[in-house]
Amino acid sequence: MALTPTTPANPSDQRKDRAAAQEDVLMREVDEAVRQDEFSDLVARYGKPLLAVVLIGLAAFAGYLYWDGQQESALEQQSETMTSALDQLEAGNLDTATTTLSTLVDGGDAGVKANAMMLQAGIAMEQGKTEEGARLFAQIAADTDAPQLLRELATIREVSAKFDTMKPEDVITRLKPMVEPGNAWFGSAGEMVAMAYLEQGKRKEAGALFAEISKNDQVPDSMRSRTRQLAGLLGVDAIEDVDEVLDEVAAASGEAPQQPAQ
Question: In this structure, are residues 168 and 199 in contact, taking their beta carbons and an 8 Å threshold?
């Protein structure tokens, strides 16, 4: 059987196809050249600023690492100095400990400085140097860079050191901001404020404050027991749970807790 001959392609169509293919290749080459020109222009226009930004960033990061290392080294040194001072205190070398702490007062950060000064003030009080101790406590209390808890504690210690020479109204003014049930120093500040009320003849206010302290389970048991007794002497009943009070008294005396009646 004879095969049917294939119809030859139209020469005009073949030329069109080849032209289209060449145009497509050319467009791709032009597109690539445009992209390269745009990149070259971008590098030429912004390459140096971008490189500068990268270099500055790397330099800043390196500087931070160096600063962080220096800070860590300084904190380690301060910690070693504080440990040395505490060892000297434990050994009873009060003057040597004071001298060692002076380096932290002069060169430590706010928290370290405040802690070092608190220890120095405590040493002064231990040595009978009440005025010097009170002066150091006052400096800490007035230092706005020191931690708030330490400032409040320093205020309490300062007032305690000068209580006998202070006017009752001055004691109340200094400590009243801390006489709040949620404050960490509520018990200590409250006791002195209540004593100042007594000096003013305000027995009712004093008794009520003593009773409030005795009912606060965040203060030490010894303080709760003491203020409960003081409230009772002033005619204020501060006992809410008799069994609880009996247990506290038994615990303080080393006896077994009271068993509830059957």
Answer: yes
CB 190 within 8 A of CB 177: no
CA distance 183 to 96: 35
pTM: 0.63
Separation of alpha carbons 220 and 210, rounded Å:
14
Task: Please identify which residue in the block is written with the tokens 């294939």.
Answer: 6
User: C-alpha distances in angstroms, 132 versus 100, 168, 254?
Assistant: 18, 22, 39
Instruction: Report the C-alpha gap between 114 and 121 in whole angstroms.
Output: 10
- The whole-angstrom separation of Cα 235 and Cα 231 is 6
Q: How many CB atoms lie within 10 A of CB 94?
A: 16
d(CA 220, CA 188): 10
The parts of the chain modelled with pLDDT lower than 70 are 1-75, 108, 240-262
